[in-house]
Amino acid sequence: MMLIWNLASLPGAAQTKKDSAPQSAKSPTQYAPPPLPSGPSKPTPRTAGGHPDLSGMWIERYGELGVDTAFGKPPSRQAAEATKYPSDALPYQPWAMKKARDLFDAATTDPLLHCLPYGEPRIWGGPHPAKLVQLPGELVILYERDTAYRIIPTDGSSHPKDLDPSWMGDSVGHWEGDTLVVDVISFNDKSWLGTGRDAGEGSGTFHSGALHVTEHITRPDFDHLNVQITDDDPKVFTHPWTYAFKMKLVPNERMYEDVTCSNEKDFAHEVPTKSAEN
């Protein structure tokens, strides 16, 4: 049976166990990923055309996986979110804030729990890698999550006129100095946004089909990649919302196939961890 609130933290890339021997709940196993390069970072590599080369395997929360749920009970969702609703961090209009809170309270409404994709831009955050491959005139991004991908023209091309709404939207990019600016439109309204800190399982952070995403991607040095994201949704937000993911280069990692709910057998009979009276 599927674990509801830990769907995105199951072992994947950068998630090797330090000790394979069973341990008690009082002493849970911690994940111990391969160490990152130490010492001062080298300068930003550049392409023959002079732009920063964004190519590499990148992870936002490398090694920050917490307790191995196979050996220790994770903190309850209710305790983790006791201070406020996660969606309160987003600039929702009053009616939309109420809807987001209702989605959170329902506890079973996250698209991930129904075997649906993360979608863009939610797919960025967390311990799963993204591999960027920079080619002349385009950037290819391969995500371990959902085994998803994006192919982004970087030659100043405009969006096609006959787009269909999708989970990842349609992306086009152009360079502004050393920053790759990616414009993303044509979303469906089925995915969630996450919390800006991570993918935000169960957060209720919905959006409409009017969502417009702008990404500013920079590589300040050899070992780091910054992805600043602005979500603009005039149908549900009072103003655009900007946050950033700071990615680390992980040259010794590799991709694993990640198929959402591939083990799901009985979601229809799963019950929320949150009691009904709350």
Tell me the CATH superfamily.
Answer: Calycin beta-barrel core domain
Question: What is the CATH top level name?
Answer: Mainly Beta
Number of helices: 2
Helix content: under 10%
Spatial order of strands in the largest sheet: 4-3-2-1-9-8-7-6-5
The SSE order reads: EHHEEEEEEEE
The number of strands is 9
Mean pLDDT: 82
- CATH fold category name: Lipocalin
Structure description:
There is one protein chain. This protein is mainly beta. It has one domain (7-14, 44-267): Calycin beta-barrel core domain (Lipocalin, Beta Barrel). Helices cover 6% and strands 23% of the residues. The chain is built from two helices and nine strands. Strands 4-3-2-1-9-8-7-6-5 form a nine-stranded antiparallel sheet, with no helix packed on it. The radius of gyration is 19 Å and the shape is globular. The two termini are 24 Å apart. Residues 1-25 and 66-75 have low confidence and may be disordered.
Please describe the topology of this protein.
Layout: E1 56-59, H1 77-80, H2 94-106, E2 130-135, E3 138-143, E4 148-153, E5 170-176, E6 179-185, E7 212-221, E8 224-232, E9 241-249
Antiparallel strand pairs: 1-2, 1-9, 2-3, 3-4, 5-6, 6-7, 7-8, 8-9
